Task: inverse folding
């Protein structure tokens, strides 16, 4: 099992450019999440999905869009990148059901917007 | 909305020292509590969790945490740290019935263990 994988690992964008981050999981999890990690602020939830074809906003959704066309994939899009979106982005997944189920994290994508 | 506070942003210890990292949360009802660890260059992984029962929970690598409901705390402890415990530690909380099992994370504590 690869677990949760993320593509790409690193990316540098210029202000205004767009990109898509791909998250894939092979654990047949129903729930998937996108977080950003900034120094001193921990991880903050951007968007999440409770199933194929459904998405919802998290704590910091502005400037991002997501799609979950297939159960195993969760895409995060930046339509017009801004320097404030410089961060490390983590994808996670978990089983549906009890909130005590742990989330499994990917290795992260380090994004720099200049 | 619930919030999570980790009091220490940076901790430096020598090997064999004891560790206690503080975590407080702001929700008054029933919660699930987690500690995740991120070793340098790696992804987050679960250290331990509490959702019911014995408030003293044991996790991997000799870590334990105690849930004290009256203090809204879930502090992480280890009697004797090793150099390999150098990492960033995150406390997280969620509500048992929240749609999507969303987690709220604290700001993290960077632990450096000197050999």
Result:
């Amino acid at each position: 099992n690869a677990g949760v994988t993320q593509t790409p690992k690193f990316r540098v964008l210029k202000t205004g450019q767009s990109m898509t981050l791909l998250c894939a999981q092979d654990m047949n999890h129903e729930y998937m999440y996108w977080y950003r990690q900034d120094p001193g602020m921990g991880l903050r939830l951007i968007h999440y999905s409770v199933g194929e074809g459904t998405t919802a906003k998290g704590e910091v959704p502005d400037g991002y869009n997501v799609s979950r066309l297939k159960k195993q994939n969760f895409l995060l899009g930046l339509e017009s990148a801004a320097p404030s979106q410089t961060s490390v982005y983590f994808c996670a997944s978990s089983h549906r059901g009890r909130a005590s189920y742990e989330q499994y994290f990917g290795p992260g994508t380090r994004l720099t917007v200049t | 909305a619930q919030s999570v506070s980790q009091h220490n942003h940076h901790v430096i210890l020598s090997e064999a020292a004891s560790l206690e990292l503080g975590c407080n949360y702001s929700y008054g009802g029933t919660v699930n509590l987690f500690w995740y660890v991120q070793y340098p260059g790696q992804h987050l992984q679960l250290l331990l969790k509490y959702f019911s029962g014995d408030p003293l929970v044991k996790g991997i690598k000799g870590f334990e945490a105690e849930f004290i409901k009256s203090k809204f705390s879930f502090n992480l402890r280890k009697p004797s740290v090793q150099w390999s415990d150098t990492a960033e530690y995150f406390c997280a909380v969620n509500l048992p019935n929240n749609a999507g099992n969303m987690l709220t994370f604290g700001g993290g504590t960077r632990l450096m263990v000197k050999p």
Chain B is about 0% helix and 50% strand. The interface with chain A takes residues 4, 6, 9, 32, 34, 36, 42-46, 49, 51, 90, 92, 94-108 of chain B (CB under 8 Å).
